[in-house]
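Notes to self, HTH luxR-type domain-containing protein:
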Amino acid sequence: MIADTNQGDSLSANSEATTNDCAFTPTGRPLCQVADEVYRHVKLCVEAVDWSFPQLECLPECVYISNAQGVLVYSNPSHRKHFSPNASPIGRTKRAFLDPVIADRADKIESLIFDGSPYVICENAGVGLNGATYHVVAHAASLKPLNAPGLAILGVMRLSIHNDRTKVAKQTDLSIAYAKFRELNARDQDICRRTALGASSRELGESLDMTTRGVELRKQKIFAKLEVAKAVDLARLLTRLQDNGFIDMGL
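result:
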């Protein structure tokens, strides 16, 4: 994951037009779940040789597809509205319509995809030229498994624009917490999930073939890493991460 929280001047080359738009209402589903559904739809369309991707046209999330040269071959209405409101981005590279700082970050994400990462999740928060703050969570995935010439990267983004900088700061804190959570191994993440759902140390020990004391020591290290004091704080943190689209743990 890239947790990019540097302040930027704008979202696009025409930031005033972009930041004057009202943010769409998030669907409430974790972004990773939406991105998986979008990927499946793209796969079905490729198999049916239908390049219109009809179900993506009504999504509130911003969706784009680019080729190996970074040229956009698809952009849904939400993406066009928020990132290129004055001209279609189709047939253009991101640098033709994005602010250079944002374009640099997009290049960094794509380089990770081309280096072999199946997907990258990133986050950015900043202030537009009119003073409005924005927050973007993006999920970029490789389309290489589809073996579709001309399709390389699928991007799905959730964007909010508002005047409450405190809210942006809270989202940035969540990004940092998510980065720490991702550093936990699979067993520790499972301990987190079960603890948040109310499992006791004894119950965890029985299911994971660990002593109760061993589980408690693991939980102490997990709590310290995630900077929470007790199980209820962990549950609240994981719920916030899930509600904001970072994870999907069935909480």
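- The first strand starts at residue 2 and ends at 3.
- The CA atoms of residues 118 and 145 lie 9 Å apart.
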